[in-house]
Amino acid sequence: MSGATVQRKRTHRRYWAIVFMFLFGWMAYLDRINLAVAGIEIIKNLHLTLPEFGLISSAFFITYSIFMVPSGILSERWGPRKLLATAITWWSTFTALTATAWNFASIFIIRLFFGPGESPMYPGSTNLFNRWLKKAEISKGIAFRDIALGVGGATGTFMATYIMVTLGWRWIFIIFAIMGYVLGLVFYVMMRDMPEEAKWISKEEVEEIKASFENVEKERAVTIRQYAPWKRLLSNPRFWAWGLTFGGYDTILYAYLTLLPLYYEVARHIKVTAVPGYTAIVWSTFIAVLLIAGWIEDKMLERGSTLFKAYAIPASISLIIGGLFVILGAYVVSPIIATIFIALGFLSNFHIPAIFGSSARMGGIFTGSYAGWALFWGNFIGGLAPFIVTYIASIYGWFWGLFYVGMWAIVAAILWLVCQPDKSFAPEIIPNYIPKRKQQ
């Protein structure tokens, strides 16, 4: 009888954390893809060169990357609720202001201020998951959060193209900003930093979350007043290698996100109304591979694999294969075959659950700081891709621009094999990772 009572009380309301972070991720990538979709019109209306447009695309990532580590620290000290609500309000404001741009300088400055607003999204949401989800659910939560990248890339291209054709390119930014304001308000009203603080979460579900951690005080994120051991971390070469892996992956992601519509129009001579169909293939592949990657890597961990076997090896192999497909996609003549190869560049998506899953498992109470470190390098190196690729393309052609992208993925693959994620970067604070079977 008591067992039946417990069963009736068991709920899964903690998954609202995943729903909200999916929507935040979707909104974030709508607000990145919009610039790419409006690229040709912005270049014409503001009288820009191709490298100037690339520099505008990179401007966001410059400040975005700089504020990554501070955002991770703030997620630990402020709590993710306040931080994420402030973040989406900030970035939606500068999304709206993009519609007011009148020349290169104005849009460049607006995009610089846009970056700090979005920087809390990923370290903050990773920290939120480490509070709201069971330990074994964190990687799945990250995978579902991050399919928003693909959904945002695909739906955002269609939505932005439709708005641009019917109302004009400036309305893209106004409409998307309003959507962001509404989402931020609903999130702030409904969510709390900890499930213990939400009246709509049962005590039984909270206890189920806590019980999933072997050492809840060190492994589960909470609001704290201490800093990660940065001096110790920064003196560890493996910590640098681990963070730098994200640079190789984000070079692919941000080259696609900011330049793909422009690439199809300029290099492949595809009509603007046909571009969403081609990009939909690419972003659908992104989603499919990411879901498969999250499932495979979680299964490996459940069966007792080390982080090296479950994360480092799959991420490394996928980055090599993905990087080679990017280069092949730039080489072939047929737009359809090129699109298939470009889409297969997202075989590199095994990196995403690996980097965020390892930041949660290796970082513990400092999950936000660990995620912020990796995200800093991802966005600093990857964020330079729009400018570097357009600069190379304007001088040597698009093939060599995408060759640069593919080679960075291969560099990241090598770094994954160096970082040895099972060994703690600061063992006196966070213990080494012990596979599940060995614990038993």
Question: Rg from C-alpha positions?
Answer: 21 Å
Report the average pLDDT across residues. Answer: 87
Any low-confidence stretches, pLDDT <50, length ≥5?
1-7
**How much β-strand is present in the residues?**
under 5%
Task: Tell me roughly what share of residues is in helical segments.
Answer: over 70%
Query: What structural class results from the helix and strand content?
Result: mainly alpha
User: How many helical elements?
Assistant: 22
Quick one: overall form? globular
Give me the strand/helix succession.
HHHHHHHHHHHHHHHHHHHHHH
Number of strands: 0
Largest sheet: none
Q: Tell me the distance between the termini.
A: 31 Å
List strands and helices in order, with pairings.
Blueprint: H1 2-9, H2 16-37, H3 39-45, H4 50-66, H5 68-77, H6 80-98, H7 104-118, H8 121-132, H9 138-167, H10 169-190, H11 203-211, H12 216-219, H13 230-234, H14 237-266, H15 275-302, H16 307-331, H17 335-344, H18 351-363, H19 367-383, H20 385-396, H21 398-418, H22 436-439
Helix pairs in contact: 2-8, 2-9, 2-10, 2-14, 4-7, 4-19, 4-20, 5-6, 5-8, 5-19, 6-7, 6-8, 6-10, 8-19, 9-10, 9-15, 9-18, 14-15, 14-19, 14-20, 14-21, 15-16, 15-17, 15-18, 16-17, 16-18, 16-21, 18-19, 20-21
Sum up the structure in keywords:
disordered N terminus; mainly alpha; 22 helices
